[in-house]
Amino acid sequence: MGYLGKKLITLIMTLFLVSAAAFLAFQIIPGDVVTSILGTEATPEREEQLREELGLNDPPVVRYFHWLGGLLRGDLGISYRYSKNMNERMPVSELIGDKLPVTLWLAALSIVLIIVISLPLGVLWAKSRSRAVDAALGVATQTAMAVPSFFLGILVTYCFGIVLKLFTPGRYVSYRQSFSGFLGYLMFPALSIAIPKIAMTARFLRNSMLTELGADYVRTACGKGCSDRRIMYGHVLRNALMPVVTFLGMIVSETVAGSIVIEQVFGLPGIGRLLISSVSSRDFPVVEILILYITFAVILVYFLVDILYRVIDPRISEK
Amino acid sequence: MTAQATGKWNKYVTAGLIMTGTAVLLGLLAFFWTPCSTTAMSLSEKFKAPSLSHLFGTDNFGRDIFSRVMKGMGTTITISVLVVLLSATVGILLGALTGYFGGVVDEIVMRVTDAVNGFPSILLALVAVSVLGSGRQNLILSLGIVFSPSYIRIVRSEYLRLRDADYIKRARLMGVGKCRILFVHILPNILPVFWVSVMIGLNNAILAESGMSYLGIGVQPPNASLGNMLSDAQGYLQTAPWCALAPGLAIVWIVLGFSLFSEGIRRLGE
Amino acid sequence: MIRIENLSVAFDGPEVVKNVSLEIKDGEILGVVGESGSGKSVTALTLMGLSARTARVTSGRILYDDVTLLEAGKPRDKALYRRYQGARMSMVFQEPMTSLNPTQRVGRQVEETLRLHTKLTAQERREKVLETFRSVGLKDEETVYRSYPHQLSGGMRQRVMIAMAVILHPGLLVADEPTTALDVTVQSQIISLLGEINKKQKNAMLFITHDLNLARRLCSRVAVMKDGCIVEIGETEQIFEHPVQEYTKQLIEAVPSRLKERKSDAEPRENGRGRTAPVVEVRDLSVYYQEGSNSLFGRRKRRCVVKGADFALYAGESLGLVGESGCGKTTLSRAVLGMIRDIDGSVVHNTPRPQMIFQDPYGSLNPTKTVGWLLQEPLRARGAIDASLALSKEEMEEAAYNMLRRVGLEDFYFHRRPSQLSGGQRQRVSIAQALITNPGFIVADEPVSALDVTVQAQIMELLRNFQQEMKLACLFISHDIHVVYKMCDRIMVMKDGRIIESGDTQEIFASPREEYTRQLLNGF
Q: Which of C289, C356, C368, C417 would best serve as a mutation to test chain B binding (most B beta carbons within 10 A)?
């Protein structure tokens, strides 16, 4: 399929551009990396040695392609900050390795929560004829959308952790120890990420359904003798869900961002926390790789959404 | 576009105005006066629960939380307004030019904004801060850069739509100058849409600023900001939950106020 | 037989349908004509049980063969209606595109009617749908069955809608402006189809339209509605030949028809286009359009939309440009005004700044400005370009007030905004704005198509007067043959980007040379 090929090429192009931007952006930053690692007291010999070790003597473009070549071979570079032992610096791949599953599971869990709760909620809201329900859901979702995820995380910690004692804040269970314990702990950060997004998605779906209910074809269906139920599930729902698919793509990419902050709140050893600490300590090789990772995830999501959209909307797939 | 112009005041606008109004007033007031000092520490006053003398209680250094929340609101709102001012100005200029004239510049700007728009803003802000370094000016600049693409897109799509409106075609036929068409004929027509996006942008800026400060890469202590207050308070959640509640609720208050206000404005427009 | 007795309907405010009584016998087509807001559509929707949730029936009742479907004071019996809707009564709507579900194959949508009302098997249902498709003139019915609405043309979609409506041979068929969104030639086919169906199925048909010519052609009886009331009702010929009520007379009078006489205001010309120089001269004009993906990488295709147009326009003359949608008439007019640059051939203007009047009265005035500001803007623009023509503030205001009066609007409209004006008033302001700089040549693109018949007549009158006073040359674009007949001295017929025929209005109407022109004219 020509379209798919084209999209794939764009995807790869984007990744290439982002990698270049991510790498080169950190080369123009003022300040010498070597001095910042060793401090101002180091001997020139030691500095030169480190420079050689980190490959900083080549021009940026050469280093970029060197780095890119490494990436393609699976060599993600070495961290400026972390050391394996006295003589060896930490490879970025090892640093990321066991943190990635934490973030991925957190995101997956959040997305499942968002979809499973928001879609039925949106449909029920659209169907509800009661003014009270309508107003209550309106206020509730507006408020939920106004709560920043980290504050929500703190509230969840307080309510479920400290008051109800459903989990012990700060006592993270590794997936290597116990997978069910891991998921149980992850449930609460996932909930903190999901609540505002559930509110947004439910609102979006409800509005989309109300728009569709006002469409001319609904009147036609009515004129055929369709029952309200049949109109809702046979005609309106599918059409109303189409824009929601695109919206969910955006929500998923924001979930990634949400996890960066939420990992901090719940003390989860995921890549979000690594990213923050690397940004604060200016550990650029790690930051570059993480940006590339997240970019890849986001682009992939949009790619999948695009394909899904083409599958469900006959108007587009025809072109 | 004011609410009076269409003559249909609604309760969203009222609620939004009251909420944002109090927040802005308290925040501005904090630049000149707060009930107690926001920095003076007093160990004897440590972790006092909310009372009449300390409305929201005191924190781990015995500082008055109400005063610090006022100060924090002032900081957060000022930074967010500056961020929106910066990104909206860039948005109007670039959006108007690319939307109306199109061409290669438009192509490039659109590719870039499309790419940037797909990404979560906090991630981009993180990257920007890590390139520019932390601190107040850099935070404003970073968030300004990060938020511009959404304004460019909105303004551009409005200009693109109105460029072919019949009344703009007629203005061209009359021989009205390009600059006048851009800013006298078209601009007033996009303002309703633009104001709503400014409101949403303010919200996003507030959330992003407090998020960054929470993560320790925005406003630095000892300066009070709602984000870093929350981050400090998290350590004492068990003993002094009010330390976290006050700044958190302050953020919710401001954001909810702005979103109710923009919802009201949007409904007025319909 | 359908009886509507003393029906009144109100939404939140006052009644929009007042005490309407109608009777439709089996095999009869009753036309309801009226301008927008006359309550004709609300009546039909109420009859069908499809009116909005906020609509309240305040008096009267609706009877279908002695069964009371609806009665004032009682809530609508949805279950009862559902048994009738689709099976015994059905409706064809104005917009065939939006009236079909865009994401369902049309075969399935038609089949749904059978699924709801019959116990046929899947195979039988399919057969019956295909058979009905054939009977409403859809060729290649298998393909149509599998198509989505956007893959069909407007005419085909409307045929699908009709198939859906008549598949169970309902006793009542309501058609609400079924041809308004269609091209003239297609319009004519759909009208014939409805007539045939009525003859064959002997059902009662309610035909709602704003177009008096259509009602006259199709209906056996006609009811005229205004402001929610029935003004007059009777046999079609009776109503059209001997209208009793003043409003009916006005309405019929306002309809442009070629049965009425017309007068020309153009300067008499000797030996064809003799002494005076033309205002606009178009020589061998071809216009191109870029299409295809609008990106850096995508390759663009250059398509020729207008081919070799060749004509001239003289002072005081009005030249009609007719053709169906997509024939290139709007593109041609834009090119003549210099709004499209990608052309071959030449356009020579002998006037400085030709102006344009658009179809949509809602889109052609900047909604954020006042009428006064709008009227002065052309003068300001002219002054900015040529300082010798710059006027003082007072002079401009004076000129604007003058123009306002000349288009028949009172002084207080000066401070109004477009949103506070009616469609007709807006079109007056548009005309004023276009003519305030005395341009000498204007293009009018369907200037009256969006207006009600009586307003239409006033605007046409206004335009003709201006043409006479200002010796204005006018390129008049319209799909409505009757309007063109009334307004224009000469006519050009366009098809697929070419001008296939041109000549004096009288001549073309009397003896069209091309078959296509004849079809266009015989649409009615």
A: C368
Phi, psi of A147 (to 5 degrees): -85, 120
Contact yes or no for C497/C304 (Cβ under 8 A): yes
Please judge whether C363 and B189 are an interchain contact, meaning their C-beta atoms are less than 8 angstroms apart: no
ipTM over 0.85: no
Chain-chain contact of B256 with A143 (C-beta, under 8 angstroms): yes
Indicate the fold that domain B3-32+52-268 takes in CATH: MetI-like fold (1.10.3720)
Asked if A150 reaches chain B (Cβ–Cβ under 8 Å), the answer is: yes
Tokens 């035909």 map to which residue?
Answer: C207
Per CB-CB distance under 8 Å, the chain B contacts of A253 are 118-120
Name the residue among C86, C101, C102 with its Cβ closest to that of A223.
Answer: C86
Q: Is B136 touching C (CB cutoff 8 A)? A: no
Rounded average pLDDT per 10-residue block, chain B, 270 residues: 47 89 90 77 72 73 82 91 95 93 85 77 79 81 90 92 92 92 94 87 90 84 83 82 87 92 79
Nearest Cα neighbor of B222 from B37, B82, B66 is B37
Listed by number, the residues of chain B in 158-197 with a beta carbon closer than 8 Å to a beta carbon of chain C are 165-177, 185, 188-189
- What helix, strand, coil percent values describe chain B, rounded to 5? 75, 0, 25
Q: What letter represents residue B175's amino acid? A: G
Mean pLDDT over the full length of chain C: 88
* C173, closest residue in chain A (CA to CA): A223
pLDDT in tens, A192-240: 999 999 999 999 999 999 999 999 999 999 999 999 899 999 999 999 9
Of C90, C95, C164, the CB nearest to A216: C95
- Model confidence over C82-119: pLDDT tens digits? 999 999 999 999 888 889 999 999 999 999 999 999 99
Tokens of B164: 């072919």
pTM assigned to the model: 0.84
Secondary-structure breakdown of chain A: helix, strand, coil percentages, each rounded to the nearest 5? 75, 5, 20
In a mutagenesis test of the A interface, which of C64, C83, C99 is the best target, namely the one with the most A β-carbons within 10 Å?
Answer: C99
- In chain B, where the domains are located: 3-32+52-268
Cα distances (angstroms) measured from residue C259 to each of C252, C321, C362, C482, C510: 12, 20, 32, 10, 12
